Automatic annotation (TrEMBL):
Residues 14-74 form the HTH tetR-type domain. Coiled coil: none annotated. Keywords: DNA-binding, Transcription, Transcription regulation. InterPro entries: Homeodomain-like_sf, HTH_TetR, Tet_transcr_reg_TetR-rel_C_sf. This is Transcriptional regulator, TetR family. Residues 37-56 bind DNA. Gene3D superfamilies: Tetracycline Repressor, domain 2. GO terms for molecular function: DNA binding. The keyword Transcription applies. PANTHER family: HTH-TYPE TRANSCRIPTIONAL REGULATOR YJDC (PTHR47506:SF1), TRANSCRIPTIONAL REGULATORY PROTEIN (PTHR47506). The keyword Secreted does not apply.
Length: 199
């Protein structure tokens, strides 16, 4: 999960810095990381490049904060919904699928993390660390909820990977293939896998 220091970092942003982050986030997601330069971000934010660098240090750091902010919002969405599913172990496993329609209303170009990963070949790039952590968190989320529901360790580990792949595939299919009913169909498949594991 994003660190406490990251949360403080974004919470302490000035209104101007917050505006820069919002503009950069939209540009990175809509146009791509490499296609968007600091000049463009500064101009569309209504600030100078010097102001941008004073607030964020570098484009890489701004990118990292963009990804961490997106990650935190996603995890909060999942965890908040999890709190309303206390009495149903199966529903708790499926929460990331349950909230997917809401999440996709603002993610029509696919997964922010996958898109960024395609543009960051350096494994040690700070943005890449955020991306890997998000996917690892989701896999652990599935694993832990499946285990809580009563599945054995081996089955839980396998099913967690299967659910992660289904979840990621739903986002890609929704954005690129534009298949009607993708999320519903994938959720039904995930439900069938969970039911089989818990039978």
């Amino acid at each position: 999960m994003p660190t406490d220091s990251t949360e403080r970092e974004t919470e302490e942003l000035t209104p101007g810095a917050q505006r820069i982050l919002e503009v950069a986030s939209e540009l990175f997601y809509r146009r791509g990381i490499h296609a968007v330069g600091v000049d463009t971000i500064a101009a569309e934010s209504g600030v100078t490049k010097r102001t941008l660098y004073n607030r964020f240090g570098s484009k890489d750091n701004l990118l990292r904060i963009y990804l961490e902010t997106k990650d935190r919002r996603w995890r909060e969405l999942v965890v908040d919904r999890l709190g309303s599913e206390n009495g149903d172990p199966r529903a708790r496993v499926l929460v990331p699928f349950t909230v997917l329609p809401e999440w996709l209303t603002e993610s029509d170009r696919g997964c922010s993390f996958v898109n960024a990963f395609a543009e960051l070949p350096e494994r040690d790039h700070p943005g890449n660390r955020v991306i890997r952590a998000e996917k690892q968190w989701l896999r652990r989320f599935f694993h832990d909820r499946i285990t809580e529901a009563g599945a054995e360790e081996g089955a839980a580990s396998t099913l967690a990977v299967q659910l992660l792949a289904l979840h990621e595939g739903a986002i890609v299919s929704n954005a690129i293939a534009e298949v009607p009913g993708t999320v519903r169909a994938v959720t039904e498949a995930a439900t069938a896998l969970v039911d089989a594991a818990l039978a």
